[in-house]
Design a protein that fits this description.
Elements lengths: L26 H4 L17 H14 L4 H11 L8 H13 L3 E4 L7 E4 L1 H9 L1 H21 L2 H19 L5 H20 L2
Antiparallel strand pairs: 1-2
Helix pairs in contact: 2-4, 2-6, 3-4
Amino acid sequence: MMMGHGHGRCGGMHMGPRGWRGRPGGHEGWAREHGGGGGRGRRRMFDGGELRLVLLKLIADAPRHGYDLIREIEDLTGGAYAPSPGIVYPTLTLLGDMGLIEEQAADGTRKKFAITEAGRAHLDENADEVARLMARLAQVGEMRERTDGAPIRRAMGNLRQVLQYRLARDDAGADTLLDVAAIIDEAAQKIERLK
Protein backbone atom coordinates (compact mmCIF):
# COMPACT_ATOMS: atom_id res chain seq x y z
CA MET A 1 0.00 0.00 0.00
CA MET A 2 2.62 2.66 -0.26
CA MET A 3 8.56 5.72 -4.19
CA GLY A 4 6.10 6.47 -6.87
CA HIS A 5 5.98 10.05 -6.06
CA GLY A 6 3.01 10.36 -3.75
CA HIS A 7 2.34 11.98 -0.18
CA GLY A 8 1.13 10.96 3.31
CA ARG A 9 -0.62 12.73 6.22
CA CYS A 10 -0.51 10.99 9.67
CA GLY A 11 2.94 12.30 9.13
CA GLY A 12 2.40 12.32 5.44
CA MET A 13 4.97 11.07 3.02
CA HIS A 14 5.73 10.14 -0.45
CA MET A 15 6.50 6.61 -1.35
CA GLY A 16 10.04 5.98 -2.45
CA PRO A 17 11.43 3.93 -5.31
CA ARG A 18 11.63 0.96 -3.01
CA GLY A 19 7.90 1.15 -2.48
CA TRP A 20 5.73 0.93 0.59
CA ARG A 21 3.92 -2.32 0.91
CA GLY A 22 0.68 -1.71 2.82
CA ARG A 23 1.73 -1.76 6.43
CA PRO A 24 -0.85 -2.20 9.15
CA GLY A 25 -1.56 0.70 11.47
CA GLY A 26 -1.97 3.44 8.92
CA HIS A 27 1.56 3.35 7.54
CA GLU A 28 0.33 3.70 3.99
CA GLY A 29 -1.07 7.11 4.81
CA TRP A 30 2.44 8.12 5.75
CA ALA A 31 3.78 6.90 2.49
CA ARG A 32 2.17 9.35 0.17
CA GLU A 33 3.38 12.74 -0.90
CA HIS A 34 2.05 15.49 -3.18
CA GLY A 35 0.41 13.94 -6.21
CA GLY A 36 2.27 11.64 -8.50
CA GLY A 37 2.21 8.14 -9.83
CA GLY A 38 -0.02 5.50 -8.47
CA GLY A 39 -3.69 6.22 -8.88
CA ARG A 40 -4.77 5.69 -5.29
CA GLY A 41 -5.68 8.70 -3.16
CA ARG A 42 -2.63 10.50 -1.90
CA ARG A 43 -2.18 12.16 1.43
CA ARG A 44 0.68 14.46 2.29
CA MET A 45 3.65 13.74 4.50
CA PHE A 46 4.18 17.49 4.87
CA ASP A 47 2.22 20.55 3.96
CA GLY A 48 4.06 23.20 1.95
CA GLY A 49 5.33 25.14 4.96
CA GLU A 50 6.58 21.99 6.65
CA LEU A 51 8.46 20.79 3.57
CA ARG A 52 10.08 24.23 3.27
CA LEU A 53 11.38 23.92 6.83
CA VAL A 54 12.67 20.37 6.27
CA LEU A 55 14.53 21.37 3.09
CA LEU A 56 15.88 24.49 4.76
CA LYS A 57 17.16 22.45 7.72
CA LEU A 58 18.90 19.96 5.43
CA ILE A 59 20.48 22.79 3.41
CA ALA A 60 21.61 24.40 6.68
CA ASP A 61 23.35 21.12 7.56
CA ALA A 62 25.24 21.16 4.25
CA PRO A 63 24.81 22.85 0.86
CA ARG A 64 22.85 20.51 -1.40
CA HIS A 65 21.15 20.26 -4.76
CA GLY A 66 17.63 18.98 -5.27
CA TYR A 67 18.53 15.36 -5.87
CA ASP A 68 20.65 15.32 -2.69
CA LEU A 69 17.66 16.57 -0.71
CA ILE A 70 15.34 13.90 -2.12
CA ARG A 71 17.89 11.18 -1.41
CA GLU A 72 18.57 12.45 2.12
CA ILE A 73 14.88 12.45 3.04
CA GLU A 74 14.53 8.96 1.60
CA ASP A 75 17.52 7.80 3.65
CA LEU A 76 16.12 9.37 6.83
CA THR A 77 12.88 7.41 6.37
CA GLY A 78 14.55 4.12 5.49
CA GLY A 79 13.24 4.33 1.95
CA ALA A 80 9.61 4.76 3.00
CA TYR A 81 9.23 8.31 1.71
CA ALA A 82 10.88 10.52 -0.88
CA PRO A 83 9.40 13.80 -2.06
CA SER A 84 8.97 14.10 -5.80
CA PRO A 85 11.11 16.46 -7.88
CA GLY A 86 7.84 18.15 -8.85
CA ILE A 87 7.45 19.22 -5.22
CA VAL A 88 11.09 19.76 -4.21
CA TYR A 89 12.25 22.02 -7.04
CA PRO A 90 9.37 24.53 -6.85
CA THR A 91 9.88 24.62 -3.07
CA LEU A 92 13.57 25.41 -3.59
CA THR A 93 12.59 28.21 -5.99
CA LEU A 94 10.23 29.59 -3.35
CA LEU A 95 12.93 29.41 -0.64
CA GLY A 96 15.23 31.33 -2.98
CA ASP A 97 12.54 33.94 -3.70
CA MET A 98 12.06 34.32 0.07
CA GLY A 99 15.80 34.99 0.45
CA LEU A 100 16.28 31.96 2.71
CA ILE A 101 18.66 30.07 0.39
CA GLU A 102 20.94 31.06 -2.47
CA GLU A 103 22.61 29.25 -5.31
CA GLN A 104 26.27 28.40 -4.93
CA ALA A 105 28.76 28.35 -7.73
CA ALA A 106 29.03 24.70 -8.75
CA ASP A 107 30.74 22.52 -11.30
CA GLY A 108 28.41 20.79 -13.70
CA THR A 109 24.75 21.48 -14.33
CA ARG A 110 23.29 20.84 -10.89
CA LYS A 111 22.64 23.89 -8.74
CA LYS A 112 23.70 23.61 -5.12
CA PHE A 113 21.90 25.70 -2.57
CA ALA A 114 23.26 27.18 0.65
CA ILE A 115 21.38 28.78 3.50
CA THR A 116 21.48 32.55 3.96
CA GLU A 117 21.58 34.51 7.21
CA ALA A 118 17.86 35.14 6.79
CA GLY A 119 17.40 31.39 6.38
CA ARG A 120 19.26 30.68 9.61
CA ALA A 121 17.15 33.25 11.43
CA HIS A 122 14.00 31.62 10.02
CA LEU A 123 15.15 28.21 11.26
CA ASP A 124 15.89 29.66 14.70
CA GLU A 125 12.41 31.21 14.85
CA ASN A 126 10.88 27.84 13.99
CA ALA A 127 13.27 25.62 15.96
CA ASP A 128 10.54 23.66 17.77
CA GLU A 129 8.66 22.95 14.56
CA VAL A 130 11.86 21.92 12.78
CA ALA A 131 12.73 19.52 15.60
CA ARG A 132 9.22 18.03 15.42
CA LEU A 133 9.44 17.55 11.66
CA MET A 134 12.87 15.91 11.80
CA ALA A 135 11.63 13.64 14.59
CA ARG A 136 8.71 12.67 12.33
CA LEU A 137 11.13 11.61 9.60
CA ALA A 138 13.19 9.62 12.10
CA GLN A 139 10.04 7.95 13.45
CA VAL A 140 8.98 6.91 9.96
CA GLY A 141 12.45 5.40 9.41
CA GLU A 142 12.29 3.51 12.69
CA MET A 143 8.81 2.24 11.93
CA ARG A 144 9.89 1.14 8.47
CA GLU A 145 12.84 -0.74 9.97
CA ARG A 146 10.64 -2.48 12.55
CA THR A 147 7.93 -3.49 10.11
CA ASP A 148 10.01 -4.34 7.07
CA GLY A 149 11.29 -7.73 8.21
CA ALA A 150 10.98 -10.64 5.81
CA PRO A 151 8.75 -12.73 8.14
CA ILE A 152 6.24 -9.88 8.46
CA ARG A 153 6.21 -9.28 4.70
CA ARG A 154 5.68 -12.99 4.09
CA ALA A 155 2.85 -13.20 6.62
CA MET A 156 1.13 -10.09 5.27
CA GLY A 157 1.39 -11.42 1.73
CA ASN A 158 -0.01 -14.75 2.84
CA LEU A 159 -2.96 -13.06 4.58
CA ARG A 160 -3.69 -10.95 1.51
CA GLN A 161 -3.71 -13.99 -0.78
CA VAL A 162 -5.88 -16.07 1.54
CA LEU A 163 -8.38 -13.23 1.88
CA GLN A 164 -8.57 -12.70 -1.87
CA TYR A 165 -9.07 -16.42 -2.49
CA ARG A 166 -11.58 -17.03 0.31
CA LEU A 167 -13.69 -13.93 -0.26
CA ALA A 168 -13.86 -14.53 -4.02
CA ARG A 169 -15.67 -17.85 -3.51
CA ASP A 170 -19.36 -18.05 -4.25
CA ASP A 171 -20.19 -19.09 -0.68
CA ALA A 172 -18.57 -15.99 0.89
CA GLY A 173 -21.74 -14.52 2.34
CA ALA A 174 -22.31 -12.00 5.10
CA ASP A 175 -21.62 -14.57 7.84
CA THR A 176 -18.28 -15.46 6.28
CA LEU A 177 -17.30 -11.79 6.10
CA LEU A 178 -18.16 -11.33 9.77
CA ASP A 179 -16.17 -14.45 10.72
CA VAL A 180 -13.12 -13.25 8.73
CA ALA A 181 -13.33 -9.79 10.32
CA ALA A 182 -13.54 -11.36 13.80
CA ILE A 183 -10.42 -13.48 13.14
CA ILE A 184 -8.46 -10.45 11.92
CA ASP A 185 -9.66 -8.38 14.89
CA GLU A 186 -8.59 -11.13 17.29
CA ALA A 187 -5.15 -11.34 15.67
CA ALA A 188 -4.79 -7.56 15.90
CA GLN A 189 -5.67 -7.60 19.59
CA LYS A 190 -3.14 -10.37 20.28
CA ILE A 191 -0.42 -8.42 18.45
CA GLU A 192 -1.33 -5.29 20.41
CA ARG A 193 -0.95 -7.19 23.70
CA LEU A 194 2.49 -8.60 22.85
CA LYS A 195 5.19 -7.55 25.30
